[in-house]
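User: Structure please.
Assistant: Input sequence and predicted structure:
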Amino acid sequence: MPRERTAIAGDIELAYGRSVSRLRRRMGLGQEAFAYKANINRTYITDIELGRRSVGIGITQKICQALNVSLVEFAVELTNQIENLKRES
């Protein structure tokens, strides 16, 4: 019996990355400028945006500060991206 698709770890990482990418582009920042602003290595930002990294709260806080969004605003964006992934599947 097929199960209903739920957000699993890989989906959350992908949704997280899409959220970062969307908010970064909304600010008009390239990855390198954003990485500098967040004080995070650019290749690490790339891996985050591609859903290849699990990110802890410390990095999330740095990302939110660099994006000028609160953790709550970021969580709303993340939730929207998770819902988008569910619709895509």
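Confidence is low (pLDDT under 50) at residues 1-5.
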